[in-house]
Amino acid sequence: MRDMAVHRTGRPPLTERRKAATRLEIAREAVALFTDRGVAATSADEIAAAAGISVRTLWRYFPNKESSVLPLLTGGIEATARALRSWPAGSGMAALLDDLVSQGQETITDLPALLNLVRLTRTEAGLRAVWLQSHHDAEPVFATALAQRAGLPDDDPTVRIQAAMINSALRAAVEHYAFRTDTANQEELTASVRMAMATVARGLPD
């Protein structure tokens, strides 16, 4: 999870791209097995076999079988961080939302798996912990992006609160959609995200 906080420019080296592709394939297979059988009934050996790797390789990438789903979560979080970094100062929430939607297109192929994973977090405590931890780790990344936009230090309470609001809104929007439907409709999920971010922009009622 620590590598989320590192902001690199340019295309990653080939070895890093291959590792990322392997990690993502493991995550896809893990979610498919967890969805079909449940976490307790799925072994690390089965996840490794489905991904075409050895169990030893699986443990090099992840400390436990629950954490193997993390690459499906970090993609959306990293896309949000990129959108926040490129959000022009002085532009409104609409500009950020448009960039969030654009950045999200990169992960659209994994949307069904992501939503299945989020649904599993209702009943699988281990997956819920990974889901919440991924958002916990994302918050300082969002705060840094907002601080750079505003010309403030990373630990400024304003940007930390703003980052927490955006982080919580996005998590709530995805859960709101995932928990209420068995489909994976990009437009409907986008509408849920737009609603959540518009709520953040309005703030609390008087």
UniProtKB/TrEMBL annotation:
Keywords: DNA-binding, Transcription, Transcription regulation. Residues 43-62 bind DNA. SUPFAM superfamilies: Homeodomain-like. Residues 20-80 form the HTH tetR-type domain. Pfam families: TetR_C_14, TetR_N. This is TetR family transcriptional regulator. It comes from Phytohabitans aurantiacus.
